[in-house]
Design goal:
119 residues; 3 helices
């Protein structure tokens, strides 16, 4: 997702005083930006720069990347679920059936060997 794909009405901005280097400017001006995407509930806080406008731009970029990452993960999990259902419903091949029956037969022989020997 690109930053220009984010609609302003979907975003909630809040500002706070950031900490760290920057001297008196950082202590007096609310430069830290917290951006929340209301439809998804994802939130990003940025205080990298001394400039509020730069932090706002960085926050939009990070939020867009976070939303894109979430969408990709959702798509991937949907694909995985579909593939799992497809595998579960697919009929077994002849060789798979043969191996399965052979394994059962082998297990049966092992269990028969555990029984008491009649004298």
């Amino acid at each position: 997702m690109k930053t220009h794909d984010l609609r302003d009405e979907d975003l909630q901005e809040s500002f706070a005083r950031s900490s760290g280097p920057g001297g008196q400017h950082v202590n007096k001006v609310s430069t830290a930006v917290t951006l929340t995407h209301l439809p998804t509930g994802l939130s990003v806080t940025v205080s990298d720069s001394r400039s509020q406008s730069m932090n706002r731009g960085i926050a939009r970029e990070r939020l867009a990347a976070k939303i894109a990452e979430q969408r990709a993960a959702r798509r991937q999990s949907a694909r995985a679920a579909a593939a799992k259902a497809r595998r579960r419903l697919a009929p077994r091949s002849r060789s798979e059936k043969r191996k399965l029956v052979e394994g059962k037969r082998h297990r049966s022989e092992i269990k028969k060997g555990r029984s008491r020997v009649n004298e």
